[in-house]
């Protein structure tokens, strides 16, 4: 589960608008204040959470915006690792988001099972893109410990 993370996890994203996307609420209506949103028409927009230390990440759940614009997440990549090179967007890819229906939550399991890292990014490659996330949930165990010791 996502327990054990520090109480105040730093969130960083490109662009100008930042709202909560790790508040535990899967409310998918932007106007209700529970989604984050980069500036419109960005090149390679991204969102990042810093877990403060390395974890073995087994799954990432992403909730898409429900009131419009569901296609904005199409083609996004979940990247996990310990590097901040290119704002963390050069870390290895965990999974690709082909499409999440409006207002829905989808669970992504990393290719190959699990990945270790401190930073979890959602990166949307391309020009004239807008990244909107309504909830991101990271499921992990402390790095270096067996998952069976944690569950």
Automatic annotation (TrEMBL):
Keywords: Calcium, Disulfide bond, Lectin, Metal-binding
Protein name in UniProt: Fucolectin tachylectin-4 pentraxin-1 domain-containing protein
Entry superkingdom: Eukaryota
Function: Acts as a defensive agent. Recognizes blood group fucosylated oligosaccharides including A, B, H and Lewis B-type antigens. Does not recognize Lewis A antigen and has low affinity for monovalent haptens.
Subunit structure: Homotrimer.
Fucolectin tachylectin-4 pentraxin-1 domain: residues covered: 7-144
Residues spanning the signal sequence: none
Assigned protein family: Belongs to the fucolectin family.
């Amino acid at each position: 589960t996502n327990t054990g993370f520090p109480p105040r996890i730093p969130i960083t994203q490109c662009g100008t608008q930042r709202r909560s996307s790790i508040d535990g609420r899967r409310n998918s209506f932007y106007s209700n204040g529970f989604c984050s949103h980069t500036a419109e028409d960005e090149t390679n927009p991204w969102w990042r959470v810093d877990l403060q230390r390395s974890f073995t990440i087994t799954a990432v759940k992403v909730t898409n915006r429900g009131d419009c614009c569901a296609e904005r997440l199409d083609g996004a990549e979940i990247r996990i690792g310990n590097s901040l090179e290119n704002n963390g967007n050069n870390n290895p890819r965990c999974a690709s988001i082909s499409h999440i229906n409006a207002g829905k939550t989808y669970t992504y399991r990393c290719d190959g099972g699990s990945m270790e890292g401190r930073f979890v990014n959602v990166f949307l490659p391309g020009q004239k893109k807008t990244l909107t996330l309504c909830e991101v949930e990271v499921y992990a165990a402390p790095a270096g410990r067996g998952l069976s010791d944690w569950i």
